[in-house]
Amino acid sequence: xxxxxxxxxxxxxxxxxxxxxxxxxxxxxxxxxxxxxxxxxxxxxxxxxxxxxxxxxxxxxxxxxxxxxxxxxxxxxxxxxxxxxxxxxxxxxxxxxxxxxxxxxxxxxxxxxxxxxxxxxxxxxxxxxxxxxxxxxxxxxxxxxxxxxxxxxxxxxxxxxxxxxxxxxxxxxxxxxxxxxxxxxxxxxxxxxxxxxxxxxxxxxxxxxxxxxxxxxxxxxxxxxxxxxxxxxxxxxxxxxxxxxxxxxxxxxxxxxxxxxxxxxxxxxxxxxxxxxxxxxxxxxxxxxxxxxxxxxxxxxxxxxxxxxxxxxxxxxxxxxxxxxxxxxxxxxxxxxxxxxxxxxxxxxxxxxxxxxxxxxxxxxxxxxxxxxxxxxxxxxxxxxxxxxxxxxxxxxxxxxxxxxxxxxxxxxxxxxxxxxxxxxxxxxxxxxxxxxxxxxxxxxxxxxxxxxxxxxxxxxxxxxxxxxxxxxxxxxxxxxxxxxxxxxxxxxxxxxxxxxxxxxxxxxxxxxxxxxxxxxxxxxxxxxxxxxxxxxxxxxxxxxxxxxxxxxxxxxxxxxxxxxxxxxxxxx
Length: 573
Prior knowledge:
The protein is α+β, with helices and mostly antiparallel strands.
């Protein structure tokens, strides 16, 4: 048995990590169900990456706020308590489903600055300059998180805006207690923080951080107060805008006041599909997640996964071969729809996915070098945070937001106290050259001024018989799509509870590189031997994804799944 250990720097710690899920049911008496080990609740639930943020969201629900209100409160609280991924300096996506089944999505993905160019990360010989798109001021795109939250509140919010931002201000100014995992993550970054941020900042601590320490963030608190009092203008204009632009100029960054003024999030029509009677509601481009998820589900639907069983060799083989083909399509056909015509209908045709799956051989792994993006008739030649909310009326929200790398670029805006993203790395710096997650891109995801970079974020809501069934999402860079895919199958095909579906060990394949990453003990030795005899390269990896989700049970209660791979917490009432 040949199992290769991946280097630690490619582990999940590279990925942005936040997941949050909030549910509120209607018309039930308060209190947790009696015999469920805290996993089902009558009135509501919050699951997210940090307990203080979960408390903030639950408090908003108890105060009478709706799903969007709670999501906004959690998002801002995570910007304080989970700096590895929580942010006001990044961007994301929101999927919305009303109690009546109406759907909508909000794209508040970051945008390339006006001065960005296709070859900005290449040297004079045309080679990609190492690290320039990761840990420099030129790695940052125009942030969208604050505008997204303002827009979501404008359209769907119920409580006052100030009430939703205040919990985050309190956490920043009064401090919050570090967990062992967050202390360890901060200690790992001490060298980078010192190198990238000359002088004192509150992420640094002499002697290192430890569990139980309290972190205070006065500058961030002041920025949040401006956002509380002035809304969008508190971030995209005035003092904060001045400080952000000054930070850009100090390191040859590209974001200008004009870029900030011109940034606006966009409402887009949700991508929907069906899998064995379940309706999938998910995010359209510039997220690749929604299309890829639906392609994966349609690719495996004809096969008897339930009969084969969870993580058995035939199940794994079919899923890997589907992933191989879907990620190849992603490299060519997915990008910002405002700049590139994405062939959504063609990619999602069952006839197309069926034809793609006919080319694999049960007796031998398909080499990724033999797989290219598919073709269509008439086609002319593209660490993350998650939160989901359902309120007592039955309206549902699924949000994924990100800084990209862990702690983004690692650069803190002086005086404003927030981390900048390194989302420019999600563009294709050069066709055929992988980004930090090993993903290959081409013309569809090339850098252009004002363009949104392609993402793997996959905020998703499922219906069954016209009623809410599941809300799910995860961080994890390129593994986001496959983690959501597996979690859905764990429940629908393998009859796992929500918590077990989230906890279950995962595997991942993304076309290139041509190997199957698997968590330790995800596959038993017999399964590995069968797959390796067919030519599959199995590589042991660290944790894959950090899924948080909630399932509506057949009795009408809500059961949460908080991923034990992180500090994820579920609270209910």
